[in-house]
Please model this.
Amino acid sequence: AQSVTQPDIHITVSEGASLELRCNYSYGATPYLFWYVQSPGQGLQLLLKYFSGDTLVQGIKGFEAEFKRSQSSFNLRKPSVHWSDAAEYFCAVGLNDMRFGAGTRLTVKP
Amino acid sequence: GAVVSQHPSWVICKSGTSVKIECRSLDFQATTMFWYRQFPKQSLMLMATSNEGSKATYEQGVEKDKFLINHASLTLSTLTVTSAHPEDSSFYICSAIGQGPSYEQYFGPGTRLTVT
Model:
């Protein structure tokens, strides 16, 4: 069965610092991988997705993620975090049977 | 971009009553809609998948007689929580995918249900 693990429940970074959110997946075939962000009172917004091709994926808001098949990982990165990036981040795998990770809450210190 | 709306955004109902939540795709036709449930500080759990004009497919452990899903048109799906109990209090989120090769689920803003 497919599953997603986000090892970090809560991460705090200083504004301007770099960010990496971890995501590990278990999937039987080629995975369809997603990163979403959820802000309070708002719906989930897709940051980026990976279906195939280039393993380094560029998304919105300056985020990128790298698919590493050998490590079953799809970590999200941003070189310089802004205060507005504070939110809950979810990694997800699958298509019609999408499974979400537990989420990582990002706090940004001024 | 594609927009999905949910109504209501927040509902309070008494135990034993039923409540209906609507999910609409505003600017595209949704061939498939999904319903998720999210507990506080937890992840989204897929409840069911619905295709227009056919019965919903429920995930294991989800009571189909309690959570009635109707996908009557290509732009509307409804979730009815029947005989609601306090343990049904949660955040319910729908998503929709449209026609075409680009697969992406567009999520609604969610509906917070509180059962008293």
User: Anything to note?
Assistant: The radius of gyration of chain B is 13 Å. The longest strand of chain B covers residues 30-38. DSSP finds no helices and eleven strands in chain B.
